[in-house]
Design goal:
By secondary structure, the protein is of the alpha/beta class. It has helices at about 5-10, 20-25, 50-65, 85-95, 125-140, 150-165, 180-190, 240-250, 265-275, 310-315, 320-330, 335-340, 365-375, 380-395, 395-405, 405-415, 430-435, 440-445, 460-475, 480-495, 500-505, 515-525, 535-540, 545-550, and strands at about 35-40, 70, 100-105, 115, 145, 195-200, 205-210, 215-220, 230, 255, 280-285, 285-290, 295, 360, 495-500, 515. Bound molecules: glutamic acid.
């Protein structure tokens, strides 16, 4: 028995690595061009909108090619994991309707539910799989245990700094590389904790080339570091875990955030050490935010719009968010959409060469426009149902108001949407209470004090009252638009206001004001604001009693 072999047995006495992974995880029969992709979030915080973007990219490429996309939870960093982290991610993904063919699911169950035969799909449940493969590497002399303490590593860093050497654990600096089996056995027997490191075959100055699906051909410094593959807690690092998983789960294309680009040489080296062909990598540029004239990465800490939940809480329809993410994904998407306004987005042929290598700028105004257009196309019932469902969850007080008269709410949100150019004042469901709140009596009454200053400047209270009193006598929501208009003109004649602007301009001194002042008074009395949908339409929706009550008040 060679020392390496004996060492592997000593460190990992459990059976293996003979476990027959080939039959446990049978090769997927995928033909040329078919992509198996995955989204592999770590449950260390809320899901970033960039995460939804990455998930959608993986979903689109897989399904477009006739392949599969799987969801793997990368929870090997126990220190950074947050409670309910995986659940939050699953919920956000389902809110934006990014669906997976296999992997972790939202169903409850021991360690969460999952579907698919390549599981478990939560890395924390795959400890044995990783250890078997670490053991295999040790047997072949490609990995070794390292007992260096934090203090020793710190000391190493200081010496390297003093000598101007590159930092890290590599080459002749990798002290535990050459420990003998006897030394290892003694340390381990004394209970010293250890990590397992790759014995990197890279040499300084060596370059590796590879073709990135998104960034194109790249040449990078080969890895020389003896990177940690198994931590003291017996769980693997990301580097090692994703190599083992992507191999056995049959992933053909790894499409991930470009913060991982710098570690690609490590990953290629690990695939080589295992004797496996690597998947193809595509590194996705981050979602950016404009700040002044510069752009920066969206920040999880500083930018509320970085959280996927932000969009759900404000009630951006999931269709609009996905539509917008498609625009970020491929530069030719908008043009395609213009030519096919009604085609499902799944028909758009996504391509790597239309993806930005630098970063996709998140423009909230643009998203709002996309969303307004989408909402403008919804039926009255659908629109009401969506606003209601959103309110039930995020604004129950408003949902209660809607409940008191559901037919009314539907008419309110639908106002002026049947016109040739429909109103587009709703970009998100939170605009329901925001933009249309005053239609509802309890909201309207709550804001009563604020109304006074809204009446036309310089108009006396008694004039306001005279207009409202006179109008209350004649107003009838059943009038057609002409009859309605004529009543207001007659009202103007009677109270000394010009019946149109032109007349007023000819002889302003002859009048108290003009028709616009009169309609403004009525509008403020009815809506409590100076802008609203068309006054006539508004009165029809509000109905006889509400109009009478508000004019009378
Ligand atoms: N767990 C890694 C992350 O959340 C995934 C990277 C990858 O997709 O491979 O950043």
């Amino acid at each position: 028995m060679s020392d390496d072999f004996a060492l592997a047995e000593f460190l990992f006495p459990e059976d293996g690595p003979e476990a027959d992974y080939e039959s446990l995880y049978p090769r997927r029969a995928v033909s040329e061009g078919v992509m198996v992709t995955r989204f592999a979030p770590s449950p260390t915080g809320f899901l970033h909108i960039g995460g939804v973007y990455t998930a959608l990219i993986n979903e689109r490429f897989a399904h477009q090619s006739g392949g599969r996309v799987l969801l793997r939870i990368e929870d090997t960093d126990r220190k950074r994991e947050i409670e309910k982290g995986a659940e939050m991610i699953l919920e956000a993904l389902s809110q934006f309707r990014v669906f997976f063919d296999e992997g972790v699911t939202a169903e409850a169950g021991e360690g969460g539910g999952e579907t698919g035969v390549y599981g478990p799909y939560r890395q924390s449940l795959r400890g044995r799989v990783y250890r078997d493969h670490v053991k295999a590497l040790i047997r072949r002399g490609k990995a070794y245990p390292s007992f260096a303490t934090t203090g020793e590593l710190e000391e190493l860093r200081r010496r390297q700094e003093a000598l101007g050497a590159d930092p890290g654990y590599y080459g002749e600096w990798a002290l535990d590389r050459d420990l003998t089996f006897e030394e290892i056995r003694a340390k381990a027997a004394a209970g010293a904790p250890y990590v397992v490191r790759l014995r990197s075959p890279g040499s300084p100055g060596e370059r590796v080339g590879y073709q990135d699906l998104i960034k194109g051909p790249l040449e990078m410094q080969a890895n020389v570091q003896d990177v940690v593959i198994l931590k003291t807690d017996g769980l693997p690092t990301y580097h090692f875990a994703h190599v083992v998983d992507d191999h056995w789960m049959g992933v053909t294309h790894v499409l991930r955030a470009d913060e991982w680009l710098a570690s690609a040489p490590v990953h290629l080296q690990l695939f080589e050490a295992m004797g496996w062909a690597p998947p193809q990598y595509g590194h996705i540029a981050p979602v950016l935010k404009a700040e002044g004239s510069s752009r920066r990465k969206l920040s999880k800490r500083k930018d509320p719009e970085a959280a996927a939940s932000y969009y759900a809480e404000l009630g951006f329809p999931e269709e609009a968010v996905r539509e917008y993410l498609m625009m970020l994904m491929n530069s030719n998407y908008e043009e395609w959409r213009m030519e096919r306004p009604d085609a499902p987005l799944e028909e758009f042929p996504v391509s790597f060469d239309r993806m930005s290598a630098g970063g996709a700028l998140l423009d909230m105004n643009k998203l709002a426009d996309v969303s307004k257009n989408f909402i403008a196309g919804l039926s009255k019932e659908d629109l009401y149902r969506r606003i209601y469902d959103w309110a039930r969850r995020y604004r129950p007080d408003f949902a209660d108001i809607l409940d008191s008269d559901p037919g009314y709410g539907a008419e309110v949100f639908h106002i002026e949407r049947e016109a040739a150019s429909p109103r587009k004042d709703i970009a998100k469901w939170a605009d329901g209470p925001e933009v249309f709140g005053y239609f509802f009596d309890s909201v309207f009454e709550g804001a009563a004090e604020a109304r006074g200053p809204l009446y036309p400047e310089g108009m006396k209270d008694e004039d306001v009252r005279a207009i409202l009193r006179a109008y209350a006598d004649v107003a009838d929501v059943a009038d057609d638009k002409n009859a309605w208009m004529e009543k207001i003109r007659v009202l103007c004649d009677g109270l000394g206001y010009a019946r149109d602007k032109k007349t007023y301009k000819k002889a302003p001194e002859a009048y108290k004001g003009q028709i616009g002042d009169v309609t403004m008074v009525i509008r403020v009395a009815l809506a409590g604001r100076r802008t609203s949908p068309d006054l006539y339409e508004m009165m029809r929706v509000m109905g006889r009693e509400r109009v009478a009550a508000r004019l009378g008040a």
